[in-house]
């Protein structure tokens, strides 16, 4: 056993899972009460939630359910989609994002994940779309700060640049976030989106030095990608990503927050939720946390 | 009509298409003789070829066929796949790449396109794989130079990093190429792979200043991506890429070579080749060459 791990099995487990969080989408076959119950049974204390299932259950009721179970909501997904050209659409997006901020506050999480949005239909102006993201952050960041919520800008893999998110690298996300105070706008470091980038180590250092790492999310990269490339994320350890290296980089950059596992994979959704959660936890211990 | 275009229709056509080249894969329903014949009928003078159909026809016979038709071979695709860990596999790759260099020389093209290769099965070491690409370039570059062929390292979209090409950005490709003389190792600028990158303008400038642009290839980015993400390239003008901006950047960087259209798209392959070639030429004039 490595010398930097606690020696007793219970302490080891405690240290391993103190930062672990399961994102709701990873086990989306579970209803919100099933998720809360399943986490309690498995000793999992952090959950990342999504707006649609929370709204369906009722925001106040969801907040109560999670709080009563002693769970921490590590993030809420997602606001964003700021890139419309039409002014009515942009105003609607701001209204929706203010609602997302209020939902995050009600759930007791500081972290609202933002997916910026893709190119408007027929547009080829990536730069303009990125500036509209900055404009929206300027509108929303003070409002979020007043609610005790930080906007967490998530760079998505470049394969989503046209239709989902014009912010494709951590460097880009940081350049946008750094226009605002660190306590108002941070970034999400997600291994699935960023693993291929040869500058990612130095960009994680930059993010950490600026106090900008608002969330750290994990999924593995597996091929072949499915049509639409949305639901092909891999279980931890099944793919190409050096997950432990990422966790060490984020730790070395000073991040001490939750480590959230967010996998979109229909194969996981077909299995019993408790079995998936146990597998994720085992993979997390083996591929993310344990020293080599 | 814009003042920087010739005024007569024939001269305009001449100027528009003097650098145009059609990559064989764009119209792969055509055999090599059909391609040569179709290009002659359409007034197209440049073709990018692939090794498999050339080998099938016979390298010497293909070289003669193309030369007799007055066509220029603008590039040969492809060498590469340098990332194996097994020494026997790596030695085999070098043998195969020397053959590719000889085929390029026989066809009279200076440009051999290299797709570097992905991660070996089970490996998560992107850095190591990239260094093995550098090692192979070191082995092959002098051999290629002796044959009058330049190695053209192609960065592929990050969605191919695991299974096809560990070189994902133009900056990375340039950092590798710059270890060698510019006349031995250049880079490919392909809009499909690089369009999302917010640093691409400055990297094209860097590539041009160093005399490193060995090829300029065009395809558009359309969504949704198909399963496997290999055959989803869009016809020029159908997607998100500002093709004219790219051509202007490459021109401004001092590149004066061929502009090759390389689209992998099964819908194009189902149509008559001459119809596809005419459509590509019309799109090229409209979306790539004409001033705004």
Automatic annotation (TrEMBL), chains A, B:
<dbReference type="Pfam" id="PF01261">
    <property type="entry name" value="AP_endonuc_2"/>
</dbReference>
<keyword id="KW-0413">Isomerase</keyword>
<dbReference type="InterPro" id="IPR036237">
    <property type="entry name" value="Xyl_isomerase-like_sf"/>
</dbReference>
<feature type="domain" description="Xylose isomerase-like TIM barrel">
    <location>
        <begin position="39"/>
        <end position="278"/>
    </location>
</feature>
<dbReference type="InterPro" id="IPR050312">
    <property type="entry name" value="IolE/XylAMocC-like"/>
</dbReference>
<dbReference type="GO" id="GO:0016853">
    <property type="term" value="F:isomerase activity"/>
</dbReference>
<protein>
    <submittedName>
        <fullName>Xylose isomerase</fullName>
    </submittedName>
</protein>
<dbReference type="InterPro" id="IPR013022">
    <property type="entry name" value="Xyl_isomerase-like_TIM-brl"/>
</dbReference>
